[in-house]
Write a structure and sequence with these properties.
This protein is an alpha+beta fold. The chain contains four helices and 13 strands. Helices cover 15% and strands 45% of the residues. Strands 1-2-3-4-5-6-7-8-9-10-11-12-13 form a 13-stranded antiparallel β-sheet.
């Protein structure tokens, strides 16, 4: 299974600190459960109580995304196709409910910090777990771990104090007279490090920036509507 954390700046969720920036309802129209195909209704009912449903018509088909409340009151988001097949599901879970190997990783990464929340992500048939770990200065680190305990990706929120000088310089130069909204350090499953930033230009255009570990620009583009 490919790491999904980097798509999650991507997922984010409606329940706050667990999320990285949801695009789930970015370009879809709200609909009612009764207006969905029977297989879609069945899939959503089995998952929990529906809070909101969006219907997304794409060139390759029609898809339905729902925000739900589980039996224990936990938050769930899922996407299914018109036949009710679950394409992606993100479910709020307790740390204690994670497999031992996963829980040990989260605890080791949160020494001196606190685990603010955990999500279980089912995607392409694979399962991973995403923890939001908060430091004493309120900076959040997202750690995604496979069901086998392998770290898939880490995304650390940075501030002016802990952003490396070359990275800070590169971002400030590109931001110019604009505003730097946020900066993150991203480490993938191979240990490769990149840095991302969200910048609002002087003309109020939101831009996404990605640079390598030396501050060289990898990508600098206008943010997609759902990422703003």
């Amino acid at each position: 299974m490919k790491p999904s954390l980097l798509n999650l700046s991507l997922l984010a969720t409606a329940w706050g600190v667990l999320s990285l920036g949801s695009t789930l309802f970015a370009e879809a129209a709200e609909t009612k459960l009764a207006q969905c195909p029977a297989p879609v209704q069945k899939a959503f009912r089995e998952a929990g109580t529906v809070v909101k449903i969006m219907k997304d018509t794409e060139s390759d088909g029609v898809f339905y995304q729902a925000e739900l409340t589980g039996e224990s009151g936990n938050h769930i988001e899922m996407e299914v196709d018109a036949m009710g097949k679950v394409l992606k599901k993100t479910e709020e879970v307790k740390l204690a409910a994670c497999p031992d190997v996963v829980r040990k990783v989260f605890l080791s990464k949160s020494i001196g910090k606190s685990v603010a929340g955990v999500e279980m992500i089912t995607d392409d048939g694979g399962i991973s777990y995403l923890a939001s770990i908060k430091s004493k200065d309120e900076l959040v680190t997202q750690v995604e771990v496979g069901a086998d305990g392998k770290v898939l990706a880490i995304e650390e929120e940075l501030n002016t104090k802990n952003t490396p000088a070359p990275i800070s310089k590169a971002i400030k130069e590109l931001a110019a007279d604009g505003k730097i909204e946020e900066v993150h350090k991203v480490t993938d499953d191979a240990g490769k490090v990149t840095y991302t930033a969200v910048i609002t230009t002087a003309k109020k255009v939101v831009m996404d920036l990605e640079v390598d570990a030396e501050g060289k620009v990898i990508e600098f583009k206008k943010a997609e509507e759902g990422d703003k």
